[in-house]
Amino acid sequence: MSILTIRGLRGGYSEVDILNGIDLDLDDGEILTVAGTNGAGKSTLAKAIVGLLPRSSGTISFMGKDIMPLSAEARMGLGMGYVPQVANVFANLSILENLQVVAGSSRQRIDELFETFPLLAERRRMRAGSLSGGERQQLAFARALVPKPRLMLLDEPTAALSPNKVADSFALIRRLPSLGVSVLIVEQRARQSLAISNRGCILDSGLVALEGDAKTLLADEKAAELYLGNIGASH
Ligand SMILES: Nc1ncnc2c1ncn2[C@@H]1O[C@H](COP(=O)(O)OP(=O)(O)OP(=O)(O)O)[C@@H](O)[C@H]1O
């Protein structure tokens, strides 16, 4: 079953279109990587899906419902989670407090999340500001998971991590479908991200240049030459 269906999506921050007519599908329980060159519109696409792009047109349906008329808040209420590029945690609050302040959080839900993220459980009284980049990202993921989203959009989840933490981060993302969460990842580390994905798509100038099964894309010579390059391979 498709959880996200996008057709003819256009939009941008001003009168100039950054997205030029995007068609994209994500099936329930799958991980999809959105890769592409710098400035191709990957983060802009994530913002359009969650309802944070100032201007957009076309159709986006989420779990069969047309969400284009809905605000970002209403889309979150339907089961979309979003972790932006800069992990949004409150540095002055403890890990526990960071989870408690999310709307709809309960003691039981926090205990469930501490089971999923034992490292956060151990450090629950520590200030989020004193966490490492990888720990802070776990907390950002846990916060986004509090309301039990059906789809998580992750914008460059490994961008702020030290290279030795990148594999841990992808391992964590790979577990999300087993928690009932489908995933759309915007990633520069395209090869590593495709390696944990079911499907992939490559954006170029606000359009889908290539898309398909993740393994097929990884083996595609054109994709490798034009888009996956050495950047992805070297990490
Ligand atoms: N807040 C903004 N206001 C105006 N223009 C923006 C804004 N954010 C991004 N843009 C422009 O939109 C285009 C696409 O940017 P976007 O961040 O979506 O690209 P990207 O594919 O995610 O790139 P990268 O891999 O470098 O992060 C760029 O030309 C960028 O300058």
Automatic annotation (TrEMBL):
SUPFAM superfamilies: P-loop containing nucleoside triphosphate hydrolases. The keyword Transferase does not apply. PROSITE patterns: ABC_TRANSPORTER_2. Pfam families: ABC_tran. Keywords: Amino-acid transport, ATP-binding, Nucleotide-binding, Transport. It comes from the Bacteria. GO terms for biological process: L-amino acid transport. InterPro entries: AAA+_ATPase (IPR003593), ABC_transporter-like_ATP-bd (IPR003439), BCAA_Transport_ATP-bd_LivF (IPR052156), P-loop_NTPase (IPR027417). Transmembrane segments: none annotated. Residues 4-230 form the ABC transporter domain. GO terms for molecular function: ATP binding; ATP hydrolysis activity; branched-chain amino acid transmembrane transporter activity. Belongs to the ABC transporter superfamily. This is ABC transporter-like protein. It comes from Nitratireductor indicus C115.
